[in-house]
Amino acid sequence: MSTNIVFIGLGNMGLPMAQNLVRAGHAVTGFDLLPASVQQFADGGGLVSDDQAAAIQAADIVITMLPASRHVLGAYLGDAGILAQARPGTLLIDCSTISTEAARQVGRAAEEKGMPMLDAPVSGGTAGATNGTLTFMVGGEESALAAARPCLEIMGKAIFHAGGSGCGQTVKICNNMLLGILMIGTSEAIRLGVANGLDAKVVSDVMAKSSGRNWTLEVYNPCPGVAENVPASRGYTGGFGVDLMLKDLGLAMESAEASGASIPLGALARTLYDMHSKAGSGGLDFSSIYRLQDTPA
Ligand code: NAD
Predict the structure, then answer these.
(1) Which of 146, 163, 180 is the last residue of a domain?
(2) Quick check: is 157 catalytic?
(3) What is the C-alpha separation between 58 and 86, in angstroms, rounded?
């Protein structure tokens, strides 16, 4: 059955996710602040409209994939926000990575309006978004997840219910802190091998079959020339930006402060991505942290 879906935020992740919903036969109307992204969506068969309020009012499901907490709060709350425009009963799914607190704030406001809402951040990168193999980490009511499942299954292959509102974001923040740390560790290890005369591919292949094995090494290798179809092989373009990783490590710091958890490696990783961003690399894929070590200490 075709569902009437509004998808807001057609960036690196949102565009391929929305395109998969279109390919599955749903009527998806896409919105983004960037006209070029909207055009790309239309070129692939997506619906576009000049009237976002009317599209939201007619929607069965509204999905958002926006950069950070402030964009999500801005999109949902206020007089012109999604909650003011959607009909009661409309299913709301925010797939952005934002703070647990912001997710709960929007979730509470949605509940007051009679709209079931899930925080459903994702893992799997742009390749996962393109191939429909994302992992969804979901917070919210079981009944809302049951209603969302057919749609999430088109965009992803693993769907985890982490708990109530905001819990999807908490587990996503834990995951991305680990990812940020692993990318730095993988970069250091490959560079150590190369500095000692080894070929980067040899070091990577051996470690990928040894105990240093991890996703940043096997699927998303940060050293140019080792793997095909990864950001490192195309000048660190596309993928997951340094500034988005920096945002996620900031969320980890906030969560640690709020809970009293100790995250010394997360804090160090944040400092290194911050240095890298300030050196002008904020828009590059986060695997470009490999290059930070080009800078003499
Ligand atoms: P992106 O910056 O490429 O895309 C965000 C899009 O949102 C942009 O096109 C922007 O124009 C649009 N936008 C911002 N405000 C808007 C508004 N009010 N209305 C309509 N459009 C608006 O970011 P991305 O890489 O697609 O990431 C999106 C989210 O997914 C982030 O929270 C990120 O942390 C998370 N994420 C990204 C990846 C990845 O690999 N890129 C992986 C997992 C999770």
Answers:
(1) 163
(2) no
(3) 8
Atom index in ligand 1 nearest the CA of residue 14 equals 26
Phi, psi dihedrals of residue 211, rounded to the nearest 5°: -75, -10
Residue that terminates a domain, selected from 130, 163, 196: 163
- pTM for the whole thing? 0.91
Same domain? 133 vs 231? no
Q: Which position among 172, 209, 247, 278 bears the catalytic label?
A: 172
Q: How far, in Å, from the CA of 226 to the mean position of ligand 1?
A: 28
CA neighbor of 81 nearest in space, from 90, 72, 93 = 72
Determine the 3-state secondary structure of 107 from DSSP: helix
297 within some domain: no
Tens digit of pLDDT per residue, the chain (297 long)?
A: 689 999 999 999 999 999 999 999 999 999 999 999 999 999 999 999 999 999 999 999 999 999 999 999 999 999 999 999 999 999 999 999 999 999 999 999 999 999 999 999 999 989 999 999 999 999 999 999 999 999 999 999 999 999 999 999 999 999 999 999 999 999 999 999 999 999 999 999 999 999 999 999 999 999 999 999 999 999 999 889 999 999 999 999 999 999 999 999 999 999 999 999 999 999 999 999 999 977 544
Tell me: do 67 and 103 sit in the same domain. Answer: yes
- Domain with 82, as residue range(s), is 4-163
Q: How far is CA 3 from CA 13, 72, 125, 212, in A?
A: 21, 23, 25, 44
Check whether residue 146 and residue 174 sit in a common domain: no
Q: How many whole angstroms from 140 Cα to the centroid of ligand 1?
A: 21
Say if ligand 1 is within 6 A of residue 156 CB. no
Q: Which atom of ligand 1 is nearest to the CA of 8?
A: 20
Is 14 a pocket residue for ligand 1 (Cβ < 6 Å)? Answer: yes
Q: 32 CA distance to ligand 1 centroid (A)?
A: 10
